[in-house]
Amino acid sequence: MENSLSKKGARVLPALMAILTLVGGFAAEGATHTYQYFRFTPTKFRNPATPEVQMSEFRFRLDNTLVTPTAITAPTGNSPAGETVANLKDTLLTTKWFSFAHSPLVFSFASPVSVNNYSFATGNDEEGRDPVSWTLEGSATGTTGPWTLIDVVTDFNTTINRRVFIGDFVIPAELPPAFTFFDVTPSIVLNGQSTDLDWFASGSPVSTLTPSGGDISDLTYSPVTPPANQDTEYVLTATNSAGSLSSKHTVRAVAGGTASYRYVRFRPLAVRSLTSTEIQMADFRFYGTANTDEKIPVAVYEEGGSPTETAAEGPNKLRDGLPATKWYSATKKNLIFDFGSTQAFDTYRITSGNDSIDRDPVRWILEGSADATTWTRFDDVSLFDYDVPIARLQEFSVPVPGGSLPPLADFAADSIKVLTGEPLKLTWTTQDAASVTISPSPGTVAASGTVTLTPAASTNYTLTATSPAGFKTVRTIPVTVVSSPVSTIAYDSFDTESGELSLVGFASVLNDFANIPKPGNAKRLRVVPDVTGRGGAAWFSKRVPVATGFDTTFNFMITKGDPGVGADGFAFVVQDDPAGDGALGSGEAGLAARALNVQFDTYQNAGELSAAFLRVLTGTTVQITLNL
After folding, report:
1. Radius of gyration of the chain from Cα atoms?
2. Which of 115, 326, 350, 429 has an alpha carbon within 20 to 30 A of 474's alpha carbon?
């Protein structure tokens, strides 16, 4: 793939392209595992939302010798006639196993067999049904186990080609460590108080915990006392001969204080599942001094709703003190608590719902008001995920932070990569900060502002906003300074690219002539690989004047095995947004301001004109749309 670019005065050149990557199969020797029964369980699919699964063949090998099961079952499957599990061992790629419901596959042998690698083949259609993550287990006693985990594969780049084996997977002699759980109880404590870290790591690893440090290989529990007035990230690392794995939790220590309001607004920002829009809680309670003086609101309602709302799972259930009832919403709506008069409290308690841990709120903001119109932020759990208990109907207590309320801080650079001698603009805004500094320069600054610097070398610029109690909110921007002979955007190929392009997301400059020979043996700009849900952008790091106009010519290629699906599109953007490289991110949407955005849409989503149309925007305003 090649992009040929010739352009006067353009600030940026992003383009989205998909490249087909083929995965070849081979038979390799792995560690030998001997069992009479094996269980293969898909845990993730190319389309995460699909309830269906399919494969055309599944084979086990010992070195290069096939080991064929006597029977295969899908315990929770639902297959139509002609597409049953028997097709997985008929040696025909033209038949398949299909199930309307996800199910593990259980392979039975007449007696114990030894295997060291395995593979499966894709079905004839619907690539969204392909497994991309799975586990493999063995059992010596029967189809119901007990099972021993012998392989785990996560986010494999399963080929989109149909009716082909995706390659042999070597079963390792030892699995890398895995955490069955790693919990912190609670996530927020008062200064000087301790919290408990609990974990279990499989694979007989040696474990270390930082910042506490030390060898904790014989422990599954450690109390820690986090430093006062700050967020502390505790990292647990488990290591064995097969690899290393780390997991982390953030613990916050606050000074504590009292909030006094008639109205409290709860703004849920995120739930445990990144894809869920649902939220639920069984109870939400407020307490005064020493957690003994409960302040019960006279009404609880969704913002914009009615204080007298009495739905079966309405917000009023949060104040009834009954864990058996709950508030449930299909969308993450704000809640209003009305106490009838001004009430003072220093703690609030949340009880998780009765089911679906995906609906647990893990990030939120609390605000208070005297009139339900003007709101003041008094707690902010938006910088990390609160570790809500996995067990259902569990109550956890959160202290009001008082002076340890984390300051709000937005910090942006107009480029994360600048050419030698080019200016760099830093922009910031803060709230609830007693002091603000930017290091290594300019030092102490106002609560909000802009500064232009000319860095001589690559530098990490760090903004620190400090609350009256000493709580610090930190934002860091790494800026790379590049010396490049390229000063204009004029590429016959990208062999001449010398680091002057700022690559965002999954963008890269590479020579992929071996896989895609057209248009030639040269480096090209690949903005996204051929993987679902990926995005990227490429920005030219040197500012170029455009006031007198410009012209540009570029070539692009979208390569995909199936013409019915592919990259959603790409965009050509000229912009002078303060967020610079981060203004567009890795998507194709128009910028909020100071941007010319030419969008080439190459996939027909619901409600769009066709699978090929062009749209021109200035900022977010559509100027013209052409159906191609």
Report:
1. 28
2. 350
